[in-house]
Amino acid sequence: MSMTVEERKAANKALIDEVLKAYPDKMAKKRAKHLNAYEEGRPDCGVKSNIKSLPGVMTIRGCAYAGSKGVVWGPIKDMVHISHGPVGCGQYSWASRRNYYIGITGVDSFGTMQFTSDFQEKDIVFGGDKKLEKIIDEIEQLFPLNKGISIQSECPIGLIGDDIEAVSKKKSKEMGGKTIIPVRCEGFRGVSQSLGHHIANDAIRDWVFDKTDPAKYPEFVSTPYDVAIIGDYNIGGDAWSSRILLEEIGLRVIAQWSGDGTIAELENTPKAKLNVLHCYRSMNYISRHMEEKYGIPWVEYNFFGPTQIEKSLREIASHFDDTIKANAERVIAKYRPMVDAVIAKYKPRLDGKKVMLYVGGLRPRHVIGAYEDLGMEICGTGYEFAHNDDYQRTTHYIKDGTLIYDDVTGYEFEKFVERVQPDLIGSGIKEKYVFQKMGLPFRQMHSWDYSGPYHGYDGFAIFARDMDIAISSPVWGLAKGAPWKKAA
Amino acid sequence: MPQNADKIIDHELLFREPEYQKLFADKKSNFEYKHADVRIEEIRNWTKTPEYREKNFAREALTVNPAKACQPLGAVFVANGFAKTLPFVHGSQGCVAYYRSHFSRHFKEPTSCVSSSMTEDAAVFGGLTNMVDGLANSFNLYKPDMIAVSTTCMAEVIGDDLNAFIKTAKEKGSIPADFDVPFAHTPAFVGSHVTGYDNALLGVLQHFWEGKAGVTAPLERVPDESINFIGGFDGFVVGNLKEIKRIFALFGVEATILCDPSEVWNTPTDGEFRMFSGGTTKAEVERALHAKATIVFQEFSSEKTAKYLREKGHEVVVLNAPVGVGGTDELLMAISRLTGKPVPAELELERGQLVDAIADSQAHLHGKKYALYGDPDQLIGYTKFLLELGAEPTHVLSTNGNEDWAEKVRAVLAASPYGQDGKVYPKRDLWHLRSLLFTEPVDFLIGNTYGKYLERDAGTPLVRLVFPIFDRHHYHRYPTWGYEGGMRLLTMLLDEYFEKLDANTNIPGKTDISFDIIR
Asked: Chain A residue with minimal CA distance to B193?
């Protein structure tokens, strides 16, 4: 039974009111600002964002360390990233984000390793700077091919007054100008992963760009077609299935930030003619900085699903000459038959299915086109750590009346799903099993549920296959309770 | 074009296609400024040498690929083991996202836990407001019967006082005055997740036995005939506690499992999400004080708790995760002695069946060398089991095992002809182990999912018998304890052996002379 837009809005608003009843009054008022049914024509989604989570509500958010080490820095493969502080943070974030890379781990690449200072009580009491110096020495001895070291601060560092900047400068000087980068991404800073992204971006600005001799790579020859991929973490190989398209339209990708990335790529990025930005939320800061300081324009793109890919390829090509523009059309035409075949195969199975999303800072809007290419409909979406500019951008993707939830709590999300009864939920590992217990198909939209890539044309085929795998599984027919319970 | 609607390939095969191989080669040669391949190969080989091992073992400050997590993870495990109990971790919120993800990746189950979401202002002024609001929100939203509080390192560094904070929260009406909020300080910079298990469990027992934070008079112990069982931190808890309960039922013994998360991490898929399921009830916790004895299955997971129980007058039987035939014998005889009941015939039969299974297969594992790493107690149990099979535990390594633990393992090794070449490595990590595998190779490795990097680098086949296991499904559903668990352990060791043997004898016309159908 399909509702009119007005009926859907009224139903969503009633649902929000009902869910808020569970909170103490003061808290209900606060949460009310983060929940809404989208009104067509509004400049944003009508929710507050990037505000402290309420204590005790089971927020799904992480912390600044997760944003810096887990997202931005961790994937840079030829550097050693020290999780500086107690053992836990590094352990829980060890290799779980699937940032694929090519290299010999432990020799010239370090992406799936856990380097930690493993703070003990004495380090807290007496400070960890001396230990950090020693750690840097030991890294140099045992991992001589590392191209740099980053120090990813965990909570205690900022609280005990350690001076990791001084240690970094001192050791860098001792080691002939070695890249050593202190990052102040203690988990208590900010309200989510988001500030960690920003801090990590700023660290690249201050400790990479500002300290790199422009003549460092004399053999680097620029071309008019040099671009850098910004904000693709190569989950399941996403950056590669994106890069291949940019190369096919005749561009030269001089850097990947930061999936399968190297410090040299970062250092050479100021030579790019255009920065192409996939994850706006986590890397708009450095893109803006490069625009201001080096005059490099940047363009946001979206490589989820053919509709958005075509639009993005044309948009990117529009910044270059006619050759590139023609190439873009050629590439779009080249992939069209494959894409059409994929849609022909899966759309009949997925058409009209309702999806609810809850992801980080980009995908809650970015993946909508890919679902719609398969005939699926987004009835609710929300972000863990978006800012208002993300909610503005979201309006270009969603339909009137869509349920919006910012920093959703476990309680709210469960209630929303119970009432809306979507055919598919796309969220994270902490949510996956909750909804599967309810008998609802689910795909992880952070890790691609260990599949992928999902970006680009090659990725779209996998995306379509996976959504069908989730929805069409026979298990859901068994998941509504035992047959003898249904009698009567 | 690699992709085709009729046969869609994902990352496993997609990137082996020529287009992508060319992309990788171009990226490498034009933009990465990598070291020369010969140099990489040189260093790669150097990391396998005794010289490198010496440097590696000389490390004093750096930890690489540790096999331990931090205290609050153990505290969340404990909270999950009590009926309708919500784990609440006071401190930064990212930690809780990590504990929940970590457990969910291992158990493939939901893990509920809340944070007090402390931020910069709380770092300056303390987290009292976060506690006050947090308890109110948790209580109203999730309607638990109990909230078990632990701490992240942030709260510990700034010195928040849980006892005072919880009291204040009650005074301010966040939760009813008589609502149970057991708590434990669980600093991440002390010990590991097993320490957190110990602290959190002690916190629960003290809360209920010492007057519920001033709500009632402390309980008086009136000894009865029941016994308690404390399992310790265990990645196979779902299968194991089910098995332990079955064993007690066969004995006809009234036993209280203190901390039982085996149901909350094993709920059905039938259309309903159960945030709470099973677990030790408050009544059981209170009754547990009166037990005549407590079996502590893992000593290093429950050191403070065991001491407290002794102070309360319990006879405490402390074990080191005994498994296999001898290990299970030890457990059953302890139960029998404490209860005065004979070991049930059914279990005696199971014992004989396990012995039978070992006899059938022992020749294949006899003399095989094993490296093993993991939590301290578990390693003692596994070491004894390997010796029982005639296998040789060669490198026994624990990141969170101390010198006391190492002494225990050395004594176990010394007592067996198969342990003579075994060495014990307390407070070492998996990068140390990598050096050991290259310089003193073994046949098999027992570890967790992260052991797959060692398997890849050193070629040592991995048997996944240690938490966390992310890349295999459902191991946690089967017991590793008891004779039934012994059967499972034996089968897993054998499977890896046979897989390896088949893989080593399957080249047609070359090695397949040994490709036997009967093994």
From this structure: A88
Give the pLDDT of chain B (519 residues) as one tens digit per residue.
889 999 999 999 999 999 999 999 999 999 999 999 999 999 999 999 999 999 999 999 999 999 999 999 999 999 999 999 999 999 999 999 999 999 999 999 999 999 999 999 999 999 999 999 999 999 999 999 999 999 999 999 999 999 999 999 999 999 999 999 999 999 999 999 999 999 999 999 999 999 999 999 999 999 999 999 999 999 999 999 999 999 999 999 999 999 999 999 999 999 999 999 999 999 999 999 999 999 999 999 999 999 999 999 999 999 999 999 999 999 999 999 999 999 999 999 999 999 999 999 999 999 999 999 999 999 999 999 999 999 999 999 999 999 999 999 999 999 999 999 999 999 999 999 999 999 999 999 999 999 999 999 999 999 999 999 999 999 999 999 999 999 999 999 999 999 999 999 999 999 999 999 999
| Cβ-Cβ contacts under 8 Å for A229 (sequence gap 6 or more) | A239, A242, A243, A246, A253, A255, A256, A257, A276, A278
* Contact B24/A at CB under 8 A: yes
CB B388 within 8 A of CB B325: yes
A-B CB pairs within 8 A amount to 342
By three-state DSSP, how is residue B475 classified?
helix
Tell me which chain B residues have a C-beta less than 8 angstroms from the C-beta of A118. Answer: 63, 66
Do the chains contact at B10 and A462, CB–CB below 8 Å? yes
Contacts of A281 (CB under 8 A, 6+ apart): A194, A197, A231, A360, A361, A362, A385, A386, A387, A390
Set of chain A residues whose Cβ sits within 8 Å of the Cβ of B375? none
* Closest chain A residue by Cα to residue B149: A56
Contacts of A216 in chain B (CB under 8 A): none
The answer to whether B110 faces chain A, any CB pair under 8 Å, is yes
- B31/A265 Cβ within 8 A: yes
Separation of CA A422 from chain center: 24
Q: Which domains does chain A have, with CATH numbers?
A: 5-59+346-487 (3.40.50.1980), 64-211 (3.40.50.1980), 226-333 (3.40.50.1980)
- Partners of B113 on chain A (C-beta within 8 Å) are 58
Q: Nearest-CA residue of chain A relative to B129? A: A55
Q: Catalytic annotation on B153?
A: yes
- Compare CB distances from A453 to B11, B111, B137 and report the shortest one's residue: B11
Cβ neighbours of residue B463 closer than 8 Å, sequence gap 6 or more: B444, B445, B446, B447, B492, B493, B496
Q: Residue B200 in contact with residue B227, Cβ under 8 Å?
A: no
Domain architecture of chain B: domains with CATH = 71-214 (3.40.50.1980), 224-267+276-345 (3.40.50.1980), 360-504 (3.40.50.1980)
**Is any Cβ of chain A less than 8 angstroms from the Cβ of B189?**
yes
A91 CB-near residues (< 8 Å, 6+ apart):
A114, A116, B66, B68, B69, B70, B102
pTM of the complete model: 0.99
